[in-house]
Amino acid sequence: MKILVCISHVPDTTTKIKFEGNGDTLDKSGVTFVINPYCEYGLSRAIGFREEGKNVSITALSVGGPEVEPTLRKALAIGADDAVRISAHPNDSALVARQIYNYVEGKEFSVIFTGKESIDFNGSMVPGMLAEYLGWSFVSFATHMEMTGEESAVLHREVDGGYEVVEARLPIVVSCQKGISEWRIPNMRGIMAARKKPLAVVSPSEEVADTLSTIKFDYPPAKEACTYIEPDNAARLVDELVSKGLI
């Protein structure tokens, strides 16, 4: 079974965000980039299938420039068999989904794992678009996945107040979140092996142009000072809530 794991190259969650110029570009100086945590759940689940005795081949894929290659190398160190970088600027969800689709077509993948979203743009659009382009089954926000044969799988997905259980036929696109697996730390053997694993660079298809451009990034508004109201002063509490349009 061939599994493709889509990897987003994102700033570490502890990064202090700064912007350049008029605020339309992230200042990347001093920023540490990592595998998107939700994508890493998908990679870990793919490796889990192998540990369960299934014959799987795992390819890690990322859309981006040469700067994403260390992130792909980490995916190789964790356990992917090979990696692919599609050399396109990933600033548009439709463009990214289409580039992945063009790579996948004709390659007989059975499962494509993505993160439920990337932690920088939080768009959560690429997996659904990709499944639509491919005409595949799609399960979003998956917290559990088990293969029930060569052509089907049972998955759990999070819903309000609990989870639902669905059965889907392969091939399938699955967007992953916490619960589907646990993160893995690459060991020294994996790090050394990653240096020799293939990392292919693929030219982007030219049929899709960027349809999205960034006008400006901005910081969230600063928190207002906390107003303390005495427990026995309910009238003032009501006045405050009314003045803020909350009731």
Structure description:
The protein is α/β, with parallel strands linked by helices and 247 residues long. The protein has a single domain (2-217), classed as Rossmann fold (3-Layer(aba) Sandwich). 26% of the residues lie in helices and 28% in strands. The chain has helices at 37-51, 69-78, 93-104, 126-134, 188-194, 234-243; strands at residues 2-6, 9-11, 19-20, 25-26, 33-35, 57-63, 82-86, 111-115, 137-147, 152-159, 162-169, 172-176, 199-202. The strands form three sheets. Strands 11-10-9-12-8-1-6-7-13 form a nine-stranded mixed sheet, sandwiched between helices. Helix 3 (93-104) packs across helix 4 (126-134). The chain is globular, with a radius of gyration of 21 Å. The chain starts with a strand and ends with a helix. The mean pLDDT is 90.
Strand fraction equals: 25-35%
Q: What's the mean pLDDT score?
A: 90
Order of helices and strands: EEEEEHEHEHEHEEEEHEH
CATH topology: Rossmann fold
Lateral strand order in the biggest sheet: 11-10-9-12-8-1-6-7-13
Distance between the termini: 56 Å
**Stretches with pLDDT under 50, minimum 5 residues:** none
State the fourth-level CATH superfamily: HUPs
Helix- and strand-based class? Answer: alpha/beta
Rg is: 21 Å
Biggest sheet: strands, sense, closure? 9 strands, mixed
Number of domains: 1
CATH class: Alpha Beta
Categorize the overall geometry. Answer: globular
Q: Give a count of the beta strands, DSSP E runs of length 2 or more.
A: 13
Output the number of helix runs: 6
Estimated helix fraction: 25-40%
Name of the CATH architecture: 3-Layer(aba) Sandwich
